[in-house]
Amino acid sequence: MTQRSLKVLSIALILTLFTVFLAACGAKSTKTTAPATTPAASDAKTTLPETLRIGFISANNNKTITGPEGWAQSKGYLESELKKYGVKEFKYFNFPNGPNLNEAITAGTLDVGIYGDTPAINGKAAGLKTRLINQTQINMNAWLVAKADGPKTLSDLKGKKVATSQGSYMSRYLTSLLKEQGLDKDVKILHLLPADGEAALSRGDIAAYAYPTGFGPLLLKKGYVAIDEAAKHPVLQGSSLTVVTEDYLAKNPQFPKLWNDLRTKAVKEIRENSEEFFKFYAEASGYPVDVVKASFKIEQWPVESSTPDGLKLIEETKKFLVEQGLAKKDFVITDWLVK
Q1: Which single residue of 51, 56, 175, 210 could bond 89 by disulfide (Cβ 3.0 to 4.6 Å)?
Q2: pLDDT greater than 50 at residue 42
Q3: Residue 9 belongs to a domain
Q4: Contact between residue 56 and residue 94 where contact means Cβ atoms under 8 Å apart
Q5: DSSP secondary structure of 14-73
Q6: Chain segment 137-162, per-residue pLDDT in tens
Q7: Cα Rg for the chain, rounded, in angstroms?
Q8: Which long-range contacts (CB under 8 A, 24 or more apart) does 185-189 make?
Q9: Which domain holds residue 214?
């Protein structure tokens, strides 16, 4: 082999070794600069306690939740979705009115409560350790019902007795209404649960009863008359709120979003299937479908967990309760609301 050939071979060998060296360095560089994986972060998963205890209001003592939450419950995904996060047992507790639900929260037997704004606000003002996670229903009507041959106007109630469920959104409506009409000193308000109102009316023990949704239209269907409605006084309408205990929230900060996402899904479905929803509500509540339809509109369940108008309605309720001394102390609604 000539000297020239040896020189060419040597240069080729050097170039080959240099190329291999660069490739090796490139591979090393790529390996070094690749983003580090964090198994702990990627594998992180929300975990809820195995038991979830839910309280709600059922004036007829029915066991099924009404509204969007009940719809999600009936369709199966309220439970199936939360089971993905570790919940194995769902305990549902129904109460005749809000103050009873507050007592259960105080006793530590509930994690979540769905009930009227008045008892929820009164409970918070009294030191009940809850946080507001949504305003599930707004603009709830109340009907001041009397016998067909009874009082015809509000002024006819002067010197008489009326009744409603104490501590409910209807009680706030009735108390406010009488005060607006200058009758608060001349009309006595008694505490009666809605289920006992008709008997008291028929006996003449009371001149009128302030009924909630369901009961109000049902009594009108029977021939009773409404001498007033909360719908005529927008700021006196009620809301239904969902609260979670501070203890449960502290241990499970992800819960409000999980719950509200399920509720939003349900609201969108009931807006697209209103007739089916009315039938579901009738079965869950025990009221005829026409009574359910007369009680509310689908739009009363907002898609959002809270709205400016809804929060304004809650604020008006709280303001009244504080001014009347019915709520023990004032507080800031937006501080109560889970962001």
Answers
A1: 51
A2: no
A3: no
A4: yes
A5: HHHHHHHHHHHHHHHHHHHHSPPP-HHHHT------SEEEEEEE-TT--SS--HHHHHHH
A6: 999 999 999 999 999 999 999 999 99
A7: 31
A8: 186/157, 186/158, 186/159, 187/157, 187/158, 187/159, 187/160, 187/161, 187/162, 188/160, 188/161, 188/162, 189/161, 189/162, 189/163, 189/164
A9: 143-236
- Residue identified by tokens 């008709």 is 198
In a domain, 291, yes or no: yes
167 burial via Cβ count (<10 Å: 0-12, 13-18, 19+): buried
Q: What is the CATH number of the domain that holds 204?
A: 3.40.190.10
Query: Which residue is it, tokens 């603009």?
Result: 139
- Number of residues assigned to the chain: 339
254 DSSP 8-state letter: T
Per the listing, tokens 């199936």 go with: 80
Percent of the chain with pLDDT over 90: 80
Amino acid at position 295, single letter: S
Instruction: Note whether residue 212 is domain-resident.
Output: yes
Residues 6+ apart with CB under 8 A from 93: 53, 54, 55, 56, 104, 109, 110
